[in-house]
Write a structure and sequence with these properties.
The structure holds 2 protein chains of 2 kinds. Chain A is mostly beta strands. Chain A has 1 helix and 10 strands. About 5% of the residues of chain A have low confidence. Chain B folds into 2 domains: about 170 residues, no CATH class; about 180 residues, no CATH class. Chain B has 9 helices and 11 strands. The N terminus and C terminus of chain B are likely disordered. Classes of the chains: A mainly beta, B alpha+beta.
Chain lengths: ~200, ~400
């Protein structure tokens, strides 16, 4: 010590622990609160395609319309970085056995949450997908062909004027599978949250 | 975190894992060129700042939403970016303004914790953890007096180095940072971006590119014939056209300007009636459309396509779709093959007589507006809308 005449620093590990340990405790609390769906979290992912599957999606207020999204991938010849997607918006959604996986650089991150008794809930969920399907979809009070700028089922979510859109009061999709490029949600609750590396969802 | 151990002293530090209370002395054999860098690095909470910056960057990278999208998401989406951006800023300030490191490090820790809620679970945990480690390291970093006191004990007292800091740090034990940012939920709903770079008119006329999307070549042929002014349906007693236009009630909503098309390999219509011609509102004025009502509409091999913003398929495509309960179909055109006879109905050539129940093959509509009380779509295999 003190060999140098210049100002030097050192790390005091007790001080480190003094801050790190409470912070880790808070992290634990956050994880617990999230997986008990007390705390709602917010997602916004884009640029990398990812897969979302769920055993069942039930939604109140459904809208679907086309969007041009920007992607890091060149999917369509002549349309660099632009990709045609359908925006799927749900005002209030519950999902059972949600699985979401993203593969970045060969590493697959996998999030699972929700089961039959305690499903994942999301509000103002908007998913931009190029593929959306299931084994069975049910809609009530469906309107196909409405102007995208006049949609009313999800407050504040509308498409460009004149574009084709459909909306329904309720939607139920079993064995949902989406190949999506962007998702945003006002809030997510994720009971039984499990976050780790592993295989892609189905 | 394994990286903690040498974080205070750098990779070239003498003994990783030893107590930081002992001095991190300069090895005498280091090249002269590295001295300024080493000096710079050791005169500030370098590793703490670095981890904070990396953590913020990881969180930002985990989002990567395009800018127009971001602008329209609203408060929620902005918070998702704001927290990691400020975190990166904190890391930079830890480097360039190390005197205020206590404030920046605690702020960085709170931001990292808050990002769990706002930003993809804190950049899928990784970014948050980096931010916490970095913030804690920076908090724990201490500047030694440039002119070390000779009587300084090996294990110095807990007194922080500067008077200003001691005011802040005095009650550090009784007041550890515990809570993340207030939950910024309850912001306004996310709003879709208006991305109007539309490639228009691909469906504009019933021309060749569409054939790709047809369920079968038969449908394409049917459309082509119809467009060419086609083989007009030899009227059968069951189905007739060239009737006179009867006004019908328009739907209460504004329908899309975009060209659209509903096609099916087969269509079964029950309880069918033709209600007349309605002037249907669009953003560009009224469009004359045929109005049909029916009890049920069952479509096999469906493709629901629209041309804006670009040609694309909608949700029920690729499925068997059935509609029931007050099924109302408005369309500019309806083409179908009934027992080998192709019928084409348009507003100028509306149907005259219709059977209650009819089955079409190679069913094609023009611009469509379709409503019903309930609808189901069944996919034979989960193949996505393109798998028709």
């Amino acid at each position: 010590m003190g060999l140098s005449r210049r100002p030097q620093g050192q790390t005091r590990w007790r001080r480190f622990a003094l801050v790190m340990l409470p912070a880790l405790a808070v992290v634990g609390l956050l994880v617990v609160l999230t997986s008990q769906s007390v705390l709602a979290v917010s997602f916004s992912i884009s640029g990398t395609p990812f897969v979302v599957t769920a055993k069942e999606l039930r939604g109140q207020g459904f809208e679907q319309f086309g969007v041009l999204d920007h992607s890091v991938l060149k999917v369509l010849p002549g349309h660099t970085n632009q990709i045609v997607l359908t925006a799927n918006a749900i005002r209030s959604a519950t999902l059972t056995d949600l699985c979401q996986s993203v593969t970045v650089g060969g590493l697959t991150l996998r999030i699972t949450a929700g089961n039959g008794s305690r499903p994942v809930t999301a509000t103002n969920l908007v998913v931009d997908a190029d593929q959306l399907s299931g084994s069975l979809a049910r809609f009530t009070n469906i309107h196909i062909g409405q102007d995208a700028s006049t949609l009313t089922e999800v407050p504040g979510v509308r498409g460009p004027k004149g574009d084709f859109a459909q909306q329904a009061d309720t939607v139920t999709i079993t064995n949902l599978r989406q190949h999506a490029f962007a998702t945003t949600a006002g809030t997510f609750t994720l009971p039984n949250l499990n976050l780790g590396f592993g295989r892609a969802c189905r | 975190m394994k990286a903690d151990h040498d974080a205070g002293e750098g990779p070239s530090g003498p003994a990783p894992g030893r107590s930081g209370d002992e001095a991190a002395d300069l090895p005498g054999d280091s090249p002269r060129v590295l001295r300024p860098w080493r000096h710079w690095r050791r005169s500030r909470p370098f590793w703490g700042g670095l981890f904070v910056i990396l953590g913020g960057a990881v969180i930002i990278l985990s989002e990567r939403a395009p800018l127009p999208l971001l602008v329209h998401i609203g408060v929620q989406g902005v918070a998702g970016y704001l927290l990691p951006v400020i975190q990166v800023l904190c890391g930079l300030l830890l480097w360039f303004n190390p005197a205020q490191r206590t404030f920046y490090s605690i702020l960085a820790i709170l931001l990292a914790l808050g990002s769990w809620v706002t930003s993809n679970l804190g950049g899928f945990f990784v970014g948050m953890l980096l931010g916490l480690v970095g913030g804690s390291l920076a908090f724990a970093w201490e500047q030694r007096d440039p002119r070390p006191e000779p009587r300084r004990p090996v294990r110095p007292p807990r007194r922080p180095p500067s008077a200003g800091l001691s005011l802040i740090l005095r009650d550090e034990e009784s007041d550890p940072p515990t809570l993340p940012e207030p939950d910024p939920e309850a912001g306004p709903a996310p709003v879709r971006p208006r991305q109007d770079g539309t490639a228009r008119g691909k469906l504009g006329d019933e021309s060749a590119p569409l054939a790709i999307y047809r369920p079968t070549a038969f449908a394409a042929v049917a459309v082509a014939l119809a467009v060419l002014g086609g083989p007009l349906p030899p009227t059968t007693p069951k189905l007739g056209s060239r009737g006179h236009a009867v006004p019908a009630q328009a739907p209460p909503v504004v329908t899309a300007v975009a060209k659209s098309r509903l096609t099916a390999l087969s269509a079964v219509l029950t309880g069918l009636s033709f209600d007349g011609i309605a002037t249907v509102r669009t953003a560009h004025g009224g469009v004359s459309m045929l109005k049909f009502s029916m009890d049920t509409l069952t479509l096999t091999g469906v493709a629901l396509l629209a041309d804006r913003p670009m040609q694309q398929a909608f949700l029920i495509s690729g499925s068997q779709a059935s509609f029931s309960g007050n099924v109302v179909l408005y369309t500019t055109k309806l083409i179908g093959d009934e027992n080998g006879t192709v019928h084409t109905f348009t507003a100028k050539r509306p149907p005259t007589t219709l059977p209650r129940d009819v089955t079409f093959t190679n069913f094609v509509t023009g611009k469509v507006y379709l409503t019903s009380n309930s609808a189901t779509a069944t996919w034979s295999e989960t193949s996505g809308p393109r798998g028709a």
